[in-house]
Design brief:
Two copies of one chain form a homodimer. The first copy, chain A, is α+β, with helices and mostly antiparallel strands. Chain A has a single domain, classed as Mth169, Chain: A (2-Layer Sandwich), CATH 3.30.1280.10. Helices cover 33% and strands 38% of the residues of chain A. In chain A, strands 2-1-3 form a three-stranded antiparallel beta sheet. The first copy, chain A, is elongated and about 50 Å long. Chain A starts with a strand and ends with a strand. The model of chain A has no long low-confidence stretch (mean pLDDT 95).
């Protein structure tokens, strides 16, 4: 069994109003050094396969077909052997 | 300047209905090997400080005070020198 961690981020060219709101929040708390906040999604899942290659293929396909919107989002992932 | 990446996940003991919905979605697409989907948040931001220690302190405080709900969520982060 393998454990995949997927990070989905908005493309740089897409405005991120949620990130802007969080940035204003940090400044309200006095953290003026915080800039360029961008919010993304994090998904973790297990893949019950024998080979890492198969787990990577499934993770990539699920990310691209179901989780990310390829027009607006980029995604990256890591796949590691699950500890149990 | 430093670049921080923050991952916020629901604690293991908290049910994740959004993750369950995504898991059903993967099975509908035929990916039956996918299990235990959990959805979290990903936040990236820049911190304009001179020292990495200061950037780590600010990232930790912002994560704990503003981004994560410590009752229900865990958070982890990395801080690296920004490339530009």
């Amino acid at each position: 069994m393998f454990h995949s961690k997927i990070i989905i981020t908005l493309r740089k060219s897409i405005l991120d109003p949620q990130g802007k709101a969080v940035e204003h929040g940090t400044h309200s708390l006095g953290y003026n050094a915080v800039k360029n906040v961008r919010i993304g999604k994090f998904v973790e899942l297990n893949v019950e396969t024998e080979s890492k290659e198969e787990a990577e293929r499934i993770t990539k396909e699920v990310s691209e077909k179901l989780l990310a919107n390829p027009i607006m989002e980029d995604c990256s992932f890591t796949v590691e052997k699950a500890s149990r």
